[in-house]
Amino acid sequence: MNQDMAEPILQMDKTSKSFGGVQALRDVSFDVFPGDVLGIIGPNGSGKTTIVNCITGFVKPTSGRVYFKGEDITGRQPHKVADLGVTRTFQIMRPYYSLPAYKNLVIPLFSPRAKRTGGWRGGGRLGNRQTIAIDILEEIGFERDSYIPFKKTSTLPTGYLKRLELARCLALKPEIIICDEVFSGLSMSEIASMVPLIQRLQDEGITIVMIEHRLRELFQVANRVMVLNFGQKLTEGTPTEVMADEKVKEAYFGSEEVEEVMIYA
Amino acid sequence: MSTQKLRKERIDRGIKVRSDGLYALMSLRELSYLTLPRFVLIAGMLSLPFLMPDMYWQRVISIVCIYAILALSFDFLAHYVGLVSLGGAFFIGTGGYVAGILNSYYGIPPVLTVPLAAIIGGAICTLMLLPCLPLKGVYFAIVTLMYPLFMARIIEAFDLFGGTDGLAGIDSFSSAFAEQYLVICTVLIFLFGLRRFVTTDMGLIFTAVMDNDQAVKASGINITKYKALAVFIASSAGCMAGACLTHIYMWSGISQFALDFSILPIAATVIGGAGTLAGPVLGCFILVPVSELLRDFGTLRIVFYASVLVGFILFRSDGIMVFMQRKYEQFERWTKI
Amino acid sequence: MEILVYGTINSVSLALMGLGFAMVYGISRVPNFAHGALYIICGFVTWTLFQIVGLSYFVAIILSLCVNGILGMSMYRFVLIRVRGMSISEIIASYAIGLVILEGLRFGGFRGMTYTLPVFMEGSLMIGGVPVDYHRVVMTIIGVALVAGLWVFTHYTRIGLALQGMAQDERAAMMLGIDSDFMAMVAMGFGAVLAGVAAILILPLGNIVVESGYHVLIMSIAVCIVGGLGSWMGAFFAAFIIGYAQILTVVYIGSHFQMVVAILAIILTLILKPSGLFGQQKELEERV
């Protein structure tokens, strides 16, 4: 744990958000440190996606602040937040269905940030966007020889679309990737192949925030877990700490599932 | 006998399959397969002024081209950027008035007013549409439908620029040929320019905005900027058409904000083939002359092209261009099943 | 006082114009751009039946309302059903139908002469020192009664509730056994009848001219946009806002600006708050 040594890279400070009369988030604060993989879990409707939206600027928090590297990014427009290197995936995948897979990556590579940084593995220089796009896709698991990168996005299976969402973030050479349920809707084998990918990204020094329902896989990769319930932060700690927490058991987990997961973890 | 069932099969021509990628061009035959349609179009358009029998039909050619530019700008905005603008008349009117004002108040010759009107008018239209850019679908369509009406009423109410009489006595082009070649070349430049543009990396951004604007935002791209750019391209095309129209009729007035300019390009786009860019031009070459023939019958021509429009939306929603493309690139045969 | 009386009358007539449009959009999500044409055609049918065929005025009105309803329903059944869900095609198709009707009428000889419908009641009375003719009073009363009746209809009758259910969530309504296409057709017929009612109430105040079809279309769009697309109670309130604003501009600025007010209201509402004053759409849906 490196809480005491490092400055937090992303900080959420007492953020609240209400839609009409519904309070989606209530005074949620947490810190993310460089190199972390922070998991955020919670039942449906507990405000997980709202956190993502508040950080990335798709929704403006009603109160509270969000800091990235000490800089206040509350309520900034999404493209400006992304320009800083805070990227996200969408729970409901949003690829560009009318384009082939590799051209999906041309769009993030066209952004000012990609021009500055050269994209993932770009080394500060941006070459031909379409070739870089194919390289990125190959590295993230699109087999080049099978022509999958060249297929129309609308014909791709879910597993590839989830990877494409990640690739879109990577093309920006991100500092943080906030994954909104990248494992959901995938088969066990597809998840099994995603886990090493996440670990590799972590090794490369990309900070990752994961919002997940698949606890088993999440606990393999996450080094800290935060639990949300009804828009409030319930607890935060290492996976084992969280599992042991009585409050969490009561509020969120079905007891059987907890046992099962604990054995696994 | 009757129990035998037949099925229509459509197969890509081999030459199409080979010439789809750029690298596969291996013979003159394949080269000509690709370039022939384009060549026919260019040569046909350029020779039109010579083929037309009299002044009247030469004038019709100019009008066709003006509508074609408008239809191109509609098609580009609607099917490559996802902004459906029902305000073709707004572009025409703005361009027309800018050209008229520049010419009659400042005495600038038509050679300069047309490009100036394209730039200034495009800037004016973009600025006025800027607050509407976050709107989507029906909302954007309605707001753009209202703009030309609004402009016309404002000019009428404040009695601006000659009020209801409009600006008369504007210089015409130096000769009929200059006029026609200007509009024909403009159509060709916009047609091939836009076709090339939408396949570039920047053109892909527009397609992406149409597909999924949230993801574009999450990719760190300012979509308002690109939407504004697209509107500028489309509106400056429209304004240029408007400026040409002003100089052709030597007059600019509030009838340039009339519905004709909004609805006819849309009809032409639907008939010609939405999203093909060449289709709208084709649609104009069909619709406008027919509606000129019906001019004696007054408003019947609006009835005519509105009903053609409804018919095409219902029964042939992919348009003539797609049909012709299919005939050119595929062969069909009946097979037994 | 004059402003108050005429503002109310103007507002009610705007509400009458907009009600059909709001109803159709609210239930079937079809922006019916042929609304103005339906309005005018009802006036012409009534006129033809009354003046040429020689039916009694009351019978002519009933018949023409029926004709209008059938017209609206067949418009949905034969044309709009094929482009359902593609909002832009819906706009273009319905607008083109409207153009065909309006310009067809114009070509068909309905021009030059003046066509008028008789008022329901002659004479006038004084309201607070302002002379108001009986017809306007009747129009206002019927208009308000119509809105109240509609409210009761949509909240307490079976078909009204079905329509409301469809307005809220079409798929859920379909799962509960509501035939969405049939309901949309009914809504469309209903909207057409409402346009007809508006025409019969408003047209006797002036001449029947084709241009007013476009005018009615713009006004009903204005009312619906300001009130929030899809919310017809919103449209009713927005009619009062725009109605008074128009009367005020006529009194203080000039009658030229009457239309400008409406168009400006549309543009400003869309720019500032696209969901309108009473709209139910979520902000994210219509904005990027």
What does this structure look like?
The complex is a heterotrimer of chains A (265), B (337) and C (288). Chain A has helices spanning 48-56, 78-84, 101-104, 106-109, 112-117, 129-139, 158-170, 188-203, 215-221, 239-244, 246-251, 255-264; strands spanning 10-19, 22-32, 37-41, 63-68, 71-72, 86-88, 176-180, 207-211, 224-229, 232-237. By secondary structure, chain A is an alpha/beta fold. Chain A folds into 2 domains: 1-85 and 176-265, Rossmann fold; 90-174, no CATH class. In chain A, the strands form 2 sheets. Chain A has a 6-stranded mixed beta sheet with strand order 6-7-8-3-9-10, sandwiched between helices. A 4-stranded antiparallel beta sheet of chain A has the order 2-1-4-5, covered by helices on one side. In chain A, strand 1 and strand 2 form a beta hairpin. In chain A, helix 8 runs parallel beside helix 9. The longest helix of chain A is centred in the last third of the chain and has 16 residues, at 188-203. Chain A starts with 9 loop residues before the first strand and ends with a helix. Chain B is mainly alpha-helical. Chain B has a single domain (7-336), classed as Orthogonal Bundle (ABC transporter involved in vitamin B12 uptake, BtuC). Chain B has 14 helices and 4 strands. Chain B has helices at residues 14-19, 28-51, 55-81, 88-106, 110-129, 137-158, 176-197, 201-211, 213-218, 223-249, 260-272, 278-293, 300-315, 319-329; strands at 6-12, 167-168, 251-252, 330-336. The longest helix of chain B has 27 residues, at 55-81. Chain B is globular, with a radius of gyration of 21 Å. The model of chain B has no long low-confidence stretch (mean pLDDT 83). By secondary structure, chain C is mainly α. Chain C has 12 helices and 2 strands. A two-stranded antiparallel sheet of chain C has the order 1-2. In chain C, helix 2 runs parallel beside helix 4 (87-107), helix 3 packs antiparallel against helix 8 (180-202) and helix 10 (232-252) crosses helix 11. Chain C is globular, with a radius of gyration of 19 Å. The N and C termini of chain C lie far apart (45 Å). The model of chain C is unreliable at 282-288 (pLDDT under 50). Chains in contact: A-B, B-C. Chain B binds chain C through residues 78, 84, 86, 131-132, 134-139, 141-143, 146-147, 149-150, 153-154, 156-157, 213-214, 217, 223, 259, 263, 266-267, 270, 297-300, 302-303, 306-307, 309-310, 313-314, 317, and chain C through 31, 79, 82-83, 87-89, 91-93, 95-97, 99-100, 103-104, 106-107, 218, 221, 225, 229, 254, 256-257, 259-260, 263-264, 266-267, 270-271, 274, 286-288.
